[in-house]
């Protein structure tokens, strides 16, 4: 009998044996995010850590999450399954973007992409509709898959989608009208949701033969319930001439003309259209990204899983490759791995070049709930963990600089003590305040309130104890230096 995840393709969603991982709780707000255990061993780049844990986490902790380098929570979004939570630029401004929706056991999803400004107001919700076929024929509000949510320099969004179709799979040991997943991508206008460009891997069958797939047609695969996942699209980057698409199950990246035709292919197995120099191998990859593109060549960075649930050999690495179009070569430049902690990530993951000058790289290990930052010499400067291996996953993870003043007020809660009260204060998502002031108030609507205590910020939640507070109402304010950034409601206690 094949294990359940064999037919499920490549995304390990939940653990078989649930394992407990500690979570945080707060008095001022009902959040239960997983604890982020941080081991910082060097100088890191500036920014916060952006994660989207799911699986064996508390419901009140399965959300888009931001942490700082000390492991303090900074922001928790609504309870939902998310992917690709990060900061991007839209029209010259920093925005946060993430996918949210339903994840299928087959390792893809149906959802939409949310774009929030630096007050956390949702300014755009990008959706995709069309005549998509689903495993149970049920229609969905939006067919955007979880794997990519990339804003282009032209302020459009690149997303993936999976469509079910019947196809002749006899060339690879299947049946003549088996069900398979076609891998699509779309470029969408963010304001109108209009489709500007689209692409289907199956339409390129002459240039992407099914026989090159490393995903085999398993025994119980080929039905509408369990379609064959030939390609598994998982990343798209805009390039000077069109796009670069990563197809995980082909161990390949495809450089596409704007019209969808394939110009060249780089393969992690044998180089594809290029001769391999040094170690230029990769397999079952994620997050393939293009840098420094010229007419002569480009740099390709990717998360080299090198593992699947059925194929676990060498450790996962972060890979950087140089492609030379004149010499027709692909040269291995970097291969990042932590010698103290070799990881076998069977699904998901990301590789983020943080800084082109010092070459720091941030990696999220997908099905293994760990992130690591490497310096320019390939040394680990930070490792952090937020769940048991293969029980909590974050599809991708990023370090991003982010400054936000939420549109909501700070939260406050008070518990009485024998001599007074303890005040708990937090302001979800606020990045810049560093101290609190506590005021006593005479009524819920009083405005001329009297300062009775102050405290420096201590992580997500700060508490102060009050002895014999003068009234039974209080209010708190969050400040940066002496500038008030936000004020809570007056609350009775
Ligand atoms: C406020 O504190 C009380 C107990 O002191 C608790 O029952 C309540 O859930 C807290 N409210 C929030 C929003 O956490
Ligand atoms: C922290 O990281 C260093 C360097 O990778 C390693 O030697 C050490 O064992 C780690 N400590 C813990 C507690 O994981
Ligand atoms: C970008 O800014 C222009 C000019 O203000 C505006 O018309 C356009 O809608 C904006 N695009 C997005 C995606 O916000
Ligand atoms: C999905 O595949 C079906 C065939 O199964 C096809 O009729 C439909 O047009 C495809 N949808 C899209 C959006 O390409
Ligand atoms: C494929 O065809 C064979 C022979 O006709 C049949 O036994 C098998 O059930 C088919 N498989 C699927 C998944 O339809
Ligand atoms: C796409 O453009 C390339 C280069 O102009 C051309 O060779 C190719 O035939 C075009 N493909 C399609 C499908 O139009
Ligand atoms: C790259 O992969 C190929 C095919 O699996 C293998 O023959 C070769 O030894 C690998 N090269 C390196 C440098 O690991
Ligand atoms: C990209 O180009 C810049 C400028 O030429 C250079 O400093 C940088 O090292 C290059 N990055 C890579 C990864 O080659
Ligand atoms: C990148 O690293 C260099 C060298 O440490 C530093 O001077 C520069 O400020 C960094 N750039 C950014 C954008 O952080
Ligand atoms: C406070 O103001 C609200 C609405 O402005 C009002 O309904 C309420 O009665 C006021 N409470 C007191 C104690 O004045
Ligand atoms: C708060 O922080 C400032 C500067 O970081 C420090 O000078 C001050 O003593 C701190 N106050 C308290 C009450 O800890």
TrEMBL record:
Superkingdom of the organism of origin: Eukaryota
Family annotation (InterPro entries): Arylsulfate_ST (IPR053143), ASST-like (IPR039535)
Keywords assigned: Signal
Keyword Signal: yes
Pfam families: Arylsulfotran_2
Signal peptide limits: 1-20
Protein name per Swiss-Prot or TrEMBL: ASST-domain-containing protein
Source species taxonomy: Eukaryota, Fungi, Dikarya, Ascomycota, Pezizomycotina
């Amino acid at each position: 009998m094949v294990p359940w995840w064999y037919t499920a393709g490549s995304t390990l969603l939940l653990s078989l044996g649930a394992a407990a991982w500690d979570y945080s709780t707060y008095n001022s707000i009902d959040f239960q995010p997983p604890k982020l255990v941080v081991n910082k061993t060097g100088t890191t780049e500036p920014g916060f850590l952006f994660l989207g844990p799911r699986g064996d986490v508390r419901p009140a902790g399965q959300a888009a999450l931001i942490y700082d380098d000390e492991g303090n929570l900074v922001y928790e979004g609504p309870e939902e399954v998310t992917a690709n939570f990060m900061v991007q630029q839209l029209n010259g401004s920093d925005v946060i973007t993430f996918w949210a929706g339903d994840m299928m056991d087959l390792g893809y999803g149906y959802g939409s992409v949310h774009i929030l400004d630096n007050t956390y107001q949702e300014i755009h919700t990008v959706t995709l509709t069309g005549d998509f076929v689903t495993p149970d024929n049920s229609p969905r509000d939006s067919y955007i898959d979880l794997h990519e949510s990339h804003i282009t320099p032209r302020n459009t969004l690149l997303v993936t989608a999976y469509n079910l179709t019947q196809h002749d799979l006899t060339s690879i040991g299947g049946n003549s009208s088996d069900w398979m997943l076609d891998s699509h991508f779309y470029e969408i206008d963010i304001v109108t949701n209009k489709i500007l460009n689209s692409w289907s891997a199956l339409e390129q069958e002459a240039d992407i033969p099914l026989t090159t797939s490393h995903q085999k047609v398993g025994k119980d695969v080929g039905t509408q319930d369990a379609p064959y996942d030939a390609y598994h699209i998982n990343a798209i980057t805009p390039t000077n001439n069109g796009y670069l698409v990563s197809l995980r199950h082909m161990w390949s990246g495809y450089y596409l003309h704007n019209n969808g035709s394939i110009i060249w292919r780089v393969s992690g197995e044998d180089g594809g259209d290029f001769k391999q120099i040094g170690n230029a191998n990769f397999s079952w990859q994620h997050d393939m990204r293009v840098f420094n593109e010229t007419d002569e060549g480009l740099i390709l960075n990717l998360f080299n899983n090198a593992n699947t649930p059925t194929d676990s050999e060498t450790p996962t690495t972060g890979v950087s490759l140089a492609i030379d179009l004149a010499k027709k070569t692909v040269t291995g430049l970097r291969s990042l791995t932590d010698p103290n902690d070799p990881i076998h990530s069977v699904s998901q993951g990301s590789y983020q070049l943080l800084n082109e000058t010092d070459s720091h790289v941030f990696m999220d290990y997908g099905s293994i709930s760990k992130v690591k930052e490497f310096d320019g010499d390939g040394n680990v400067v930070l490792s952090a963990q937020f769940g048991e291996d293969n029980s909590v996953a974050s599809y991708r993870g990023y370090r991003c600089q982010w400054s936000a003043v939420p549109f909501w007020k700070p939260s406050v809660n008070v518990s009485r003590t024998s001599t007074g009260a303890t005040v708990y204060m937090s302001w979800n998502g606020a990045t810049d305040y560093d101290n609190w002031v506590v005021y006593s108030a005479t009524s819920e609507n009083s405005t001329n309130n009297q300062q009775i205590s102050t405290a420096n910020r201590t992580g997500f939640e700060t508490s102060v104890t009050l002895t014999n507070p003068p009234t039974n109402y209080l209010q708190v304010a969050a400040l940066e230096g002496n500038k008030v950034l936000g004020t809570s409601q007056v609350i009775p206690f």
